Amino acid sequence: MEKPIVRAVDVGYGRVKFIKGRLPSGGYACESFPSVVGFAQSRSLGGGYFAERSTVTVAYKGAEYEVGPDALLSTGASSTRNLDMNYVRSDDYQILLRGALKMMGLPRIDVLVLGAPVANYEEAKEHLRSAFTGRIAVDRSFEVRVESVLVLPQPLGGYAWHGRASGTYDRIRRELNLLIDPGYFTLDWLVALGTKIVPGRSGSHPAGMSSLVRLLASEVARASGGGMDSLFLWDAIDRHFSTGEPLRLMGRPYDLGRHSGAIERLLASAAEAIAARVGDARDIQNVILVGGPAKLYEPAIRKALPGHAIQVAEEPVFANVRGFQLVGEELASRV
To answer: Which conformational region is residue 300 in: left (phi greater than 0), alpha (psi within -120 to 50 degrees), or beta?
Structure first.
């Protein structure tokens, strides 16, 4: 019997992560690109001297768009990211998911696994199932047939992947866990006994990475006497934290350390929102941190949850999507 084709996509506010396939080692091949949508532009500018943009073109509602690693180059100076709680219903989400499907290159997917924020999970789950089951036109000549859609709460993927990667999967499935996922827009967390969620202690808070980037853009603008509303500048601040790349402003190095007090206050407020919702955390056995900015948020979470050994997932930026793939494969194998 042919194994079902399972593919996971994590369409985040900051980046789209997806599973391309299996590595020779047996692990998952992951790829990602920024959650930025640009109108399709000519690729022939530069007469062959400049490199072409690393993007793919997708079609949606009669228009063509570019998404991919270099999508920022297809945007205007005043473009912004979509930061809205109804993100899963937006045109941007539709376009970004089509981009991931085009990069996968599969004409059929038996189980497409997606994630949704904790705050509006039930509503988002039903919408995503309805919107992406069936034939999805990706461009004028390529479509993907999706047989079924599985939607999981965002941090649940990281929980599953961390358990498998750390060798603690069987143990933590019997314990009370706090799963924390600082995404780009929202900071999501789940309290779960194994895979059974405790809704009253789970939640979302609008204090993801974009809040920090917005704060620093405002601080830098005030200090430099200029605006900081360009996506390229926002992206440069984001890259400073994700890759350690130095920030340069008007060609000169800019030390973001001068705003360390503002950074610490924002992260402390985010961590305290978790602690307030979770309540007395002495009954929680494992605190697991996933998501791209996990290590940035870790010190503040340690202070807000004293006494707990905070576990940071391996390669936290891909933890959710790898976990989505793992759960999807496990459930598909039972059918």
So the answer is: alpha
**pLDDT by 10s per residue, the chain, length 335:** 678 999 999 998 888 999 999 998 888 999 999 898 888 775 554 444 334 678 899 999 999 999 988 777 766 544 455 566 688 999 999 999 999 999 999 999 999 999 988 778 888 999 999 999 999 999 989 999 999 999 998 888 888 899 888 898 889 889 999 999 998 888 989 899 987 889 899 988 888 888 888 888 888 888 776 666 667 777 788 888 877 788 888 888 888 888 899 999 999 999 999 999 999 899 999 999 998 889 999 999 999 999 999 999 888 989 999 999 999 999 888 76
C-alpha neighbours within 13 Å on the C-beta side of residue 11:
30
Q: What is the pTM of this model?
A: 0.85
User: Which residues 6+ apart lie within 8 Å of 120 measured at CB?
Assistant: 85, 86
Helix, strand, coil in percent for the chain, rounding step 5: 40, 25, 35
Among candidates 68, 124, 52, which has minimal Cα distance to 100?
68
Q: What is the rounded CA–CA span in Å between residue 50 and residue 90?
A: 33
* Beta bridge pairs of residue 310: 287
Residue 54, both tokens: 């690393």
